[in-house]
């Protein structure tokens, strides 16, 4: 459905709910699949990999999140830029200092959209 439905409303619901549930139950095999998707030519698979931990809150695997974001940092694609910012913003509710650090460290690679979305609720100042 992610590839054939291929629009943000399908992808976002599947990624944030179904893929998240699978990730919780299947751990490492699902992480491997999402890491593969994060570099896939299909933008919707890449978006899904970025968004699959949206509901994780304090349980977010930060290294895994960043690994899924990394391949799309330089993308010009709106839907990937928006997903990066959204995923970072959601984790920012749990660890705002870390998201500020990550945005500052990746200042030149993150798009303006990704930065605005990531910092929307926490701002850059500590």
What would the average pLDDT be, to the nearest integer? 94
Helix fraction? 55-70%
CATH class: Mainly Alpha
Q: Please state the CA-atom Rg, rounded to the nearest Å.
A: 13 Å
Stretches where pLDDT is under 50 for at least 5 consecutive residues are none
First CA to last CA: what distance? 41 Å
Write down the domain tally.
Answer: 1
CATH topology: Leucine-rich Repeat Variant
Helix and strand composition category: mainly alpha
Please identify, by name, the CATH architecture.
Alpha Horseshoe
Number of strands: 0
Report the order of strands and helices. HHHHHHH
What share of residues are in beta strands? Answer: under 5%
What does the largest sheet look like? none
Shape: globular
Number of helix segments? 7
Describe this structure in words.
- By secondary structure, the protein is an all-alpha fold.
- The protein has one domain: Alpha Horseshoe (Leucine-rich Repeat Variant), CATH 1.25.10.90.
- It has helices spanning 2-5, 8-37, 43-51, 62-69, 78-92, 96-105, 112-119.
- The mean pLDDT is 94.
């Amino acid at each position: 459905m992610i590839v054939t439905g291929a629009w943000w409303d399908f992808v976002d619901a599947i990624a944030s709910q179904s893929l998240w549930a699978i990730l919780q139950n299947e751990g490492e095999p699902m992480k491997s699949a999402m890491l593969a998707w994060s570099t896939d030519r299909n933008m919707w698979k890449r978006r899904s990999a970025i968004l699959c931990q949206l509901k994780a809150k304090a349980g977010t695997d930060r290294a895994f999140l960043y690994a899924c974001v990394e391949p799309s940092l330089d993308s010009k694609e709106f839907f990937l830029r928006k997903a990066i910012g959204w995923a970072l913003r959601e984790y920012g509710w749990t660890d705002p200092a870390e998201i500020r650090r990550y945005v500052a460290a990746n200042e030149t690679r993150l798009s303006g959209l990704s930065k605005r979305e990531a910092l929307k609720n926490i701002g850059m100042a500590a």
